[in-house]
Structures are given as C-alpha cells and as structure tokens.
Write a structure and sequence with these properties.
6-stranded mixed β-sheet; alpha/beta; 8-stranded mixed β-sheet; EC 6.3.2.12; folate biosynthesis; Protein-Tyrosine Phosphatase, Chain A; 2 domains; about 425 residues; about 40% helix
C-alpha cells in the first residue's frame, strides 16, 4: 500500500470513528468496554499499568512518568485524551505517535467485533471506548513493559478504569464537567476516586480538605495507602525560567536541583506527583533516568511558547477556572509587565463566566473567536459574557484570522480544540485533513 493509500485508509477510519461514534456522545459505564476487551482477549491485562486521573495536570503527569520510564529503558505505552492536532497523539509507543498504518491495522482487527456489538444499542461502544480498546490492543501487540494511562473523564465510569494498576494517581480535583461529575468538590472527588483499586496505592497533589477527605475515605475502604503532597512528599522551587525550571524533590528519595522544561509552578507540583507515583510503584529507577526524563518531558499546548513571523504565541489549553488560574500565575511569572493580547474561545458547556473572570486586568486587547468543534454553537453567549469583564471585546470568528490580526505577544486559550487548531497552523503553515472530517 502506498503512502497516499495508507493516508486515505487512515482518514476513512477516523471518518468512521468521528461520525459513527461521535466524540461528544458520552456513554458512562464499564460494561461495553469490558465486553469489547473480553472479545479481544483482554489485552489490557498483558502488561503493567499506571493510572493517572484528576481535573488538571493528568496529561502532564502522564508525560513525565512516561519519559522517566523510557529513560530507564522500559518499553512504554502512553494513552492521552483529547488530542490537539492529530488523532495519533492519543496512542504512543515510547512517546512516538502510533503510525497511520498501525491505526488502520488495529481498527481492522477490531472491526468484525465492533460490527457484532453494534447489532444491539446497549452493547455498542462509544468513540472513547473504541479508541481506548485500540490503545490497549496496540500496547499488547507492541509488547510494552508498562502502559501509562490518562483518564478521559472522571474516573469511576471511565473506559480506562478496567485496569488493575501499580499505582492510581489523582493529580488535582476541581470543578469541570459538572453535568456529568457533580456540582460539588465532594461529588467530583468521589467520581475521581473510582479509580482507586483494592490494595493499590493512591498518590495525589490535591490540597483541598473536602476533596482529600473523600479520597482518603474511599482509599481506607479499599485498603489503599494514600500519599498526599506536602505531607508524604514535597517539592521546593529553586528558580523559574522559561524552559528551565529548577526544583528539589523530597519523598522516599531526595533529589536536588532537578530541571523541568515544562513551564509554570504548577508543573513543578505535577513533577512531584509524577515522582511520588513512580516511587509508589516500586519500580527500580536511577537518578539519571529521573533527571533525563524530566528534561525530555513536554506536554503540547500547555503553556507552550511558539514564535512565528516575529510574534510570540503562548498556547494554553486551560478550559476551566483552575486551569485559568494556573495560566495567570505563569503569565505573571514569565511575562511580567509585558503587554499581552488574548485570543479566546470557550465551548458552550464550560464555566465561561468563572474562566473569563480570572483574566480581568491582564490583557491589553481581547479577541473572542470560534472553537473549531460542534460543541460550540453559542458564540454570541461567549461574546456577551466577555463584555461583562472586558471593556473592548473584538470578535473575529476565524481563529487563524484572530491570531494574524493580533500584534505583539498573544495568549491563545479557552479550549484544547482551539489551541490544537492554532498550533497546527503555527507549526506547519496549514491545517491537516483530520480537521476537515
């Protein structure tokens, strides 16, 4: 099969996944994924795993853990969601994206089983369940030593929650996806605590007392040891410079002057959570692997700095108030006193008011734009909400026109879909075919 034919076949698989199993259609429950995996021979039970959940930070922690394990010489599968620019980002072997050819091969192996399950609606898997099963099968076929798995949504009923990991991690607990997870911190913490397994240690970077109480109660019933930041492990910031953030870690082991290329003080806390998670697994790791892995770790679209045509773009996928707060803190640290523009798009189902409130008094120019997602239908509502917090709000619906019109340093945020779309254009000069599906 030629490269062109391969790409065509790959795009056909994506077209099927996106349209037959729309991404926005959440189907909670583990029955469908369990049945699908059973028919595939339970590939997720053929290797060790680490399970990473939380409201914010889970993608970054997954990336740090993966890179440290790779530096130690392990063969590592990593699973992320959502993707920014290409579907292939979701499924990785040693942090290399799955190839178009392998996406097609894995899907073709699953297709007869999917057709069988689709005969009855109650057994028909969702988009996320199919993709999760594809990742599990790919990792088994590639003989990984260990898989590091980012939770998709919540935890208790998430499709990834079929594994029995070496360690469960809940990075943070905050308000997001309230319609699905609940409207209080306690309810959200309970949903996320669903990933805690009998006798499996739990690591958390959460500090809120009400969230910790819920997690500790669930862990107690499951006979799980809990490791909490500032109590069982800690980090100390030494210096913060763009792409060179230094800190000390104190846990079971002590490491001084570690260097993290990911930006923001919250990423140093995430690194602490990643290191404690690895300690809790009991896997042998050298100090060299830890230092090297942290330097190599990078999470695209999270306070990512890109330069184009003499302009600086700060891309950050913050899409809830807690993420917005972290972004503001990082901007003040790294871009203090610099005039900044804001290009923002927020999906309809997000807490637009509380997100926008965090950005008052920071930006010279505010441009509201459209998120390239079917989940954004109410552009006027976003504009009206923005006008509550900013005097001069410009509206440029096309995200690429919005960033082109912005002069000087520009922050692009509000949605991972928006950041992914803009990032694709800034890094390649075009928008790939996947966005047109």
């Amino acid at each position: 099969m030629g490269v062109k034919d391969e790409t065509m076949a790959y795009l056909e698989v994506l077209r099927y996944l996106y349209h037959k199993r729309p991404m926005g259609k959440v189907k909670p429950g583990l029955e469908r994924i369990s049945m699908l995996l059973s028919k595939l021979g339970n590939p997720h039970l053929k290797y060790k795993s680490i399970h990473v959940g939380g409201t914010n930070g889970k993608g970054s922690v997954t990336n740090m853990i993966s890179h440290i394990l790779i530096s130690q010489g392990y063969r590592v599968g990593s699973y992320y969601s959502p993707h920014l620019s290409t579907f292939r980002e979701r499924i990785r072997l040693n942090e290399e994206y799955i190839s178009e050819e392998d996406v097609v091969k894995i899907y073709e192996k699953m297709e007869p089983i999917l057709n069988e399950l689709d005969k009855e609606e109650i057994f028909s898997p969702s988009f996320f369940e199919v993709v999760t099963a594809m990742a599990f099968l790919y990792f088994a076929e590639k003989n990984v030593d260990i898989a590091v798995l980012e939770v998709g949504l919540g935890g208790r009923l998430d499709a990834t929650n079929v594994v029995f990991p070496l360690c469960s991690t809940i990075v943070t607990v905050d308000r997001d996806h309230e319609k699905t997870l609940g409207y209080t911190i306690e309810q959200i913490a309970w949903e996320k605590s669903g990933i805690i397994k009998e006798g499996v240690p739990l690591v958390t970077g959460e500090r809120k007392r009400e969230a910790l109480k819920v997690m500790e109660d669930v862990a107690r019933k499951k006979n799980s040891r809990v490791y909490v930041i500032d109590k069982d492990f800690s980090v100390r910031v030494k210096s913060l410079k763009l792409h060179e953030n230094r800190f000390d870690y104190c846990g079971e082991n002590t490491f001084e002057d570690l260097v993290l290329t990911m930006n923001g003080p919250h990423q140093i806390e995430n690194a602490g959570v990643a290191l404690k998670t690895l300690e809790a697994t009991g896997l042998p790791l050298s100090e060299k692997a830890i230092r090297e892995g942290l330097k190599n770790a990078k999470n695209l679209g999270r306070f990512e700095i890109l330069e184009k045509n003499g302009k600086t773009y700060i891309l950050d996928g913050a899409h809830n108030p807690h993420g917005a707060e972290s972004l503001v803190r990082s901007l003040k640290l790294y871009f203090n006193d610099k005039p900044l523009n804001l290009v923002i798009g927020i999906l309809d189902d997000k807490n637009r008011e509380d997100i926008l409130r965090k950005y008052t008094g920071i930006f010279e120019r505010v441009i509201v734009t459209c998120v390239p997602s079917p989940r954004m239908k109410d552009m006027n509502g976003l504009v009206d909400t923005a006008k509550k917090f900013f005097k001069n709000v410009e509206v440029i619906e096309d995200p690429l026109e919005a960033i082109e019109s912005s002069e000087g340093d520009t922050v692009v945020t509000g949605s991972l879909f928006l950041v992914g779309y803009v990032r694709e254009f800034l890094t390649t000069g075009k928008i790939n075919e996947e966005w047109k599906l």
